[in-house]
Structure formats: structure tokens, C-alpha cells
Amino acid sequence: MLRFLDAGESHGKGLVAIIEGFPSNVEIDINRVNLQLARRQRGYGRGERMKIEYDQVEILSGIRGGKTTGSPISMLIYNKDYKNWMDIMDIQKEYTGKITVPRPGHADLNGILKYNLNDIRNVIERASARETAIRTAIGAICMELLNKFDVKIVSRVLRIGKVEDLSRVDMSAEENIKRIEESQIRCFDAKIEKRMIEEIELAKEKGETLGGEVEVIAYNIPCGLGSYSSYDRRMDYIISGAIMSIQAVKAMEFGEGIMASCSYGSEVNDEIIVENDYYKRSTNYAGGIEGGITNGMPVVIKVYMKPIPTTRKGIKTVKLNGEEAISRYERSDTCAVPSLGVVCENILAFEITKEFLNKFGGDSIEDIRNSYDFYLKRISRR
Ligand SMILES: Cc1cc2nc3c(=O)[nH]c(=O)nc-3n(C[C@H](O)[C@H](O)[C@H](O)COP(=O)(O)O)c2cc1C
Ligand SMILES: C=C(O[C@@H]1CC(C(=O)O)=C[C@@H](OP(=O)(O)O)[C@H]1O)C(=O)O
């Protein structure tokens, strides 16, 4: 079973992870992994921190001569900002400048109470979305395996605050993806991109922050990943748990789930057809999952992010000594929705890989390939 464990603090030395259960003989291009890390850092609306970091992964084990060995893959991303936080983050010496004003919307107060701490810094450090850097690297390693089976996972920004990009886009087309990648917002429509940037600037001027919505699509996912047999093997359970665990994500949707909930059944159940020797659906309202199992159509999700909780504009709170106070501000992103799309792509890549390996098993890529080819032949109509 593919699994990972990650650790690390936002302003500590770095982030670490161990991936276990990854098959052998998978070629890994570290440049492609680092490209995912760079994509995650880009995007209009990010704060000062992203000017300091230049995320690159260092592999410590499990890859040799450009290929996985089947042993645990351990890796590390250094925090460049650590040099500015060495006193505060010292593992031995206690830092006296404790943070005692919890920010509404962040983990601050719940973390303090739960872990019986007296310095909110201890909560901030691990609750921070800095952790999404290492999860992106884990997903990017998984993408290297999925690439071999022509799986492609892409995303775009649909909305920043109230500004929507309503363009209908075929995201399987290279030229459309190129356009999205070149956009500072990672949206498709250049005119809307301008309005989104203005919206972020306006929020920044007001000391405010913004959330939004992204769409993520995984192409070429074979029918048969996940299962209806138990609740925790359902693909929608697995994907939603992983996506909802991303910091500041407050809702998600599979396919046209919301629209379907206010339609007639015959309008939104995707008709079954045969195309190129395989069962397909004439539409994809279900977003590629029926009965907890992928159905061979693209897996489509929409993910909703709340506005960044740390705002320059103060919010009423209460100090740890009970006195009324206004939330504190050091620095923060104004909007991280473009980054969210990249994080979702890679988190989805991990979950799909896990279920791909559950289905096609095998300790080496060769065994997986045999099992995959055999299965695709079996479910073909030819
Ligand atoms: C890519 C990304 C960047 C983020 N940047 C910030 C930030 O700069 N400041 C902040 O307060 N929250 C930021 N967040 C959100 C917080 O980490 C998150 O709201 C907080 O941990 C509380 O968790 P919850 O919103 O899931 O309940 C970011 C989230 C993501 C995904
Ligand atoms: C460091 C990252 O995101 C951080 C997530 C984050 C938070 O509170 O979640 C707060 C900010 O960090 P800082 O407090 O150092 O300014 C973001 O920059 C990153 O995405 O790599």
C-alpha cells in the first residue's frame, strides 16, 4: 500500500517526507518534480515569503541512477527563510517573544488549547500551508509513474473572489494548458485575468484577502479505481478527504454535483455508450466516478478556498489572558488560489497513484504494466 509521512515547520530547517510502497524501476526526472514546486510558488497574490523561498527537492534515498529502487523514498525541501528565524526556531533555547493573540480563521486558538501550549508560534508552524510544498513534491513523484500510463492532471482558476472565468475550456488541449500556465492567475481568459488581478490589488489596498475556486481534471484514468465494497475504498471518499485536508479549502464538488442536485434524474445521469472499443459516457456530469469507482471518464473536481485568514485589517479576538484584542499581522498572502490548483493536482496524483497500485499491484513498473495491459484488454469490447 502506497503511503507517506511528512513533517517540518514553516520556519524550521525544512520539510521532510518518506514515501513507502512506491514500485521499482520508475524513471524519475527531478527537474519535473522541481517544476511542480516552482508552479506552486507562482501566481498573483502571494506575499513576501514566496520571494524568499526557491523550493527544490533533495532526494535522500529510494532513487538511484534516475530510477526508483522499490525502497522508501525520503526527501527534503529546505526553508530558505530559516536563516531569518534561527533564534525563534531554536530547538533548545526558549524564545521569550511568545505569540498570545490568536487569529480568527487560523489554527491558533484550537491548537493552543488542544496541545496545552503557551506560545501560538508552536501551532502556526505546523498548521501553515507551507506543508503543501512537500505534499506537492510527493504528488510530483507519483506523477512520474502516472505519466507512463498517459495520465495527465491539469487545473485552472475559475474564480477569484467574485470575479469568474466562465470560458468553456478543453483542458486536454496542449495550447489551452499553455495559455493557463502563462497566465499570472492560472485562468484562461486574459481579460478576466486582468480583472482578477485588479480584484486582488483592491483587496490588498483594503487590508483584505480573497479566496476562490479552481477546477482540476485528471485525464486517462482507467475504469476500476476505488470500490463500492466499503465506504473507505470509495474513490470519492478518498479524493475528498485528501482535497479537504488542504489548508483553507472549505468545499469541493465532483463533476456537476451541485447542478445535479437540482435537476431531474434523466437529465444528469450520463448515458452509456461505446467509443473506440471501450464503454464511455456521452456526458460527464458524474465527474468520472460512479459507485465509488472511476468509470473511465476524466475525474473532474472543483475546489473552493476561503479567503486567507491573516488580514492586515484587524479582526476582533481575545488574548490568551482573556483580554479583548485585535488580531495581529506580520505578513501574509493576499490570495493563494492559483497555488491551490497546483497543490490539488499533485495531491490528486498521490491518491490516484495509491488506487492505481491497489488495482494493478506489482513491485516493479514492469509487473504493473503487464497487469494494466491485461486488464485494459479484458474490459475492451473488441
Ligand atoms: C497555498 C496556500 C497558501 C496560504 N497562505 C496563507 C497565508 O499567507 N496566510 C494565512 O493566514 N493563511 C494562509 N493559508 C491558509 C491557512 O494555512 C489556513 O487557512 C489555516 O491553516 C487554517 O486552516 P483551515 O482554513 O483549513 O481551517 C494558505 C493556504 C494555502 C493552500
Ligand atoms: C510558506 C508558504 O505559505 C505560507 C502559508 C501560510 C499559512 O499561514 O498557511 C503563511 C505564509 O507564510 P509566512 O507566515 O512565512 O509569511 C505563507 O507564505 C508556502 O506556500 O510555501
The number of helical segments is 12
State the CATH class.
Alpha Beta
**Oligomeric state of the chains?**
single chain
Structural class: alpha+beta
GO molecular function, one term: FMN binding
Keywords: Amino-acid biosynthesis, Aromatic amino acid biosynthesis, FAD, Flavoprotein, FMN, Lyase, NADP
Catalytic activity: 5-O-(1-carboxyvinyl)-3-phosphoshikimate = chorismate + phosphate
Binding site for NADP(+): 40, 46
Q: Could you list some keywords that capture this structure?
A:
382 residues, alpha+beta, Chorismate synthase, AroC fold, five-stranded antiparallel beta sheet, 34% helix, 20% strand, binds flavin mononucleotide, binds ligand EPS, NADP, Chorismate_synthase_CS
Structure described in brief:
With 382 residues, the protein is an alpha+beta fold. The chain is 34% helix and 20% strand.
Fold and architecture overview:
This protein is 34% helix and 20% strand. It has one domain (3-379): Chorismate synthase AroC (Chorismate synthase, AroC fold), CATH 3.60.150. Strand 11 (272-275) and strand 12 (278-281) form a beta hairpin. The strands form 6 sheets. It has a 5-stranded antiparallel sheet. The longest helix has 24 residues, at 337-360. Helix 1 packs antiparallel against helix 11 (337-360). The chain has helices at 30-41, 49-52, 108-115, 121-127, 132-147, 174-182, 190-205, 235-244, 257-260, 265-268, 337-360, 365-379, and strands at residues 3-8, 14-20, 57-61, 63-64, 67-68, 73-78, 152-160, 163-164, 212-219, 249-254, 272-275, 278-281, 289-290, 293-294, 299-305, 316-318, 324-326. The radius of gyration is 22 Å and the shape is globular. The model has no long low-confidence stretch (mean pLDDT 97). With 382 residues, the protein is α+β, with helices and mostly antiparallel strands. The chain contains 12 helices and 17 strands. The ligand C=C(O[C@@H]1CC(C(=O)O)=C[C@@H](OP(=O)(O)O)[C@H]1O)C(=O)O binds next to helix 5.
